[in-house]
């Protein structure tokens, strides 16, 4: 079997639409692996509507939860039988030609461990609302990292296709709290040796909705994930690439990306202050040194939070 399209499932609202989009693929050599994360919602009745033998359904005995959601991604990886794996949200969709486009890209760039598709964002009514930036057809991991932070690339775990064996050899999807930056690190590890190929056609549909983890207010948990990612990046950059062009990206990353991550921290704190006010200011003041922020930078965060608070009101 060539493809395992996996769904770590918890929400029922868009699950049928998600499954239907996969079954509509023009390239038919695939399986669907659905792992119900002990959801309180009735996912069983949705999955039981289907008799297609390519669908395999599992139910976790214990809920992994939002903070440890990557554990459920890795359960999907554990059950996958295909040579390549997609891990998509239970409210996302694939265009009918998604796997066929991946196949075409794979023929042009064989033997890579990771591929990426351009993404179209849709709303809760499945209507178009945004489009991911276009990427070069082939690039190195250093290009990925620099563009992600300096050009504010948007990405999701579902717009990547991984070689299953390589992902397992790397230890699976990289676990960070709330999966914050987990898609990035997992893709960087997969692209480290051979690079990545990208489609220019949007064939993955990411649904923007109020219940997405990325829209939650768990700012302090996200900050912990950011600090863990920052440490991973520091360790990764200890090794200077031999390729001349990659070496230039490496130099730029070491020079610029730390400032971009600090910028993200400042605005994350501002978002938290917007919601919790004084208690947040005290919390972040006590954690300032751990975050590597100066007093003026923290005060700037307070200003951002106050501004956002008045805008909300």
Overview features:
313 residues; alpha/beta; ten-stranded mixed beta sheet; globular
Q: Explain this structure to me?
A:
It is globular, with a radius of gyration of 20 Å. It has helices at residues 15-23, 44-47, 69-79, 98-108, 141-150, 164-169, 182-191, 219-236, 244-276, 278-286, 288-291, 295-312; strands at residues 3-9, 30-36, 55-59, 84-87, 93-94, 114-122, 128-131, 138-139, 160-163, 196-207. The mean pLDDT is 94. Strands 1, 2, 3, 4, 5, 6, 7, 8, 9 and 10 form a ten-stranded mixed β-sheet that branches. The chain has twelve helices and ten strands. Strand 6 and strand 7 (128-131) form a beta hairpin. Helix 5 runs antiparallel to helix 7, helix 8 (219-236) packs antiparallel against helix 9 and helix 9 (244-276) packs across helix 10 (278-286). It is an alpha/beta fold.
Summarize the structure in short:
The chain is of the alpha/beta class. 46% of the residues lie in helices and 18% in strands.
Give the low-pLDDT segments. none
- Helix run count: 12
Rg: 20 Å
Strand content: 15-25%
- Main pleated sheet: 10 strands, mixed
How many beta-strand runs?
Answer: 10
Structural class call reads alpha/beta
Shape descriptor reads globular
Mean pLDDT: 94
Amino- and carboxy-terminal Cα gap: 54 Å
Report helical residue fraction: 40-55%
What string, H for helix and E for strand, traces the elements in order? EHEHEHEEHEEEHEHHEHHHHH
Topology diagram in text:
Elements: E1 3-9, H1 15-23, E2 30-36, H2 44-47, E3 55-59, H3 69-79, E4 84-87, E5 93-94, H4 98-108, E6 114-122, E7 128-131, E8 138-139, H5 141-150, E9 160-163, H6 164-169, H7 182-191, E10 196-207, H8 219-236, H9 244-276, H10 278-286, H11 288-291, H12 295-312
Parallel strand pairs: 1-2, 1-4, 2-3, 6-10
Antiparallel strand pairs: 4-9, 5-10, 6-7, 6-9, 8-10
